[in-house]
Amino acid sequence: MSEFAGEGRPLGPSAFDGVLRRLGIGAAELWAVIRVETAGVGFLPDRRPLILFERHWFSRLTDGRHDEVAPEISSRRPGGYGARGAHQYERLARAIALDRRAALESASWGLGQLMGFNARATGFACRHGGPDFRYNRCDE
């Protein structure tokens, strides 16, 4: 899934401060979210954003059409995540083969683990409705 690889630049101090100002929170609150969601790392070594594919969202966004044939990637029940890291892109690829938009919207992405279905509201949407992380930079 090299289409998701990019610069993989870390969140710099000025961007960090900008996030604090935009959200109106303190550094401790932001670090708490970052540590819980990603252990402080937003990218894999190959510079793809860290993702977690969430099968219950895929099921919901596809009205359960794939639950019976692919329960490991489409189920009303959360869980079944498997290993973190590159394995999540394998799951995403299987879901993309069934429904690209729903698949991209069913993963949480990057340092803040933004759900794909929230991409439009946060300014990271592309034409297919999923997240657009072309630049893959935490400082944007």
Can you describe what's shown?
The chain has 140 residues and is mainly α. Helix content is 38%, strand content 6%. The protein has one domain. Strands 1-2-3 form a three-stranded antiparallel sheet. A hairpin with a 4-residue loop joins strand 2 (107-109) and strand 3. The longest helix has 13 residues, at 86-98.
Quick synopsis:
This protein has 6 helices and 3 strands. The chain is mainly alpha-helical and 140 residues long.
The span between the termini is 22 Å
How does the overall form come out from the CA principal axes? elongated
Beta-strand content: 5-15%
DSSP strand count = 3
How are the strands of the biggest sheet laid out side by side? 1-2-3
* Helix/strand class: mainly alpha
Helix proportion: 25-40%
Mean pLDDT: 83
Main beta-sheet strand count, sense and barrel state: 3 strands, antiparallel
Please trace the helix and strand order, writing H or E for each element: HHEHHHEEH
Low-confidence stretches: 134-140
Tell me the domain tally: 1
SS summary, helix count: 6
Radius of gyration: 15 Å
Structural key phrases:
single chain, 140 residues, mainly alpha, three-stranded antiparallel sheet, 6 helices, disordered C terminus
List the helices and strands and how they pair.
Layout: H1 13-23, H2 27-38, E1 51-53, H3 55-61, H4 86-98, H5 100-105, E2 107-109, E3 114-115, H6 119-122
Antiparallel strand pairs: 1-2, 2-3
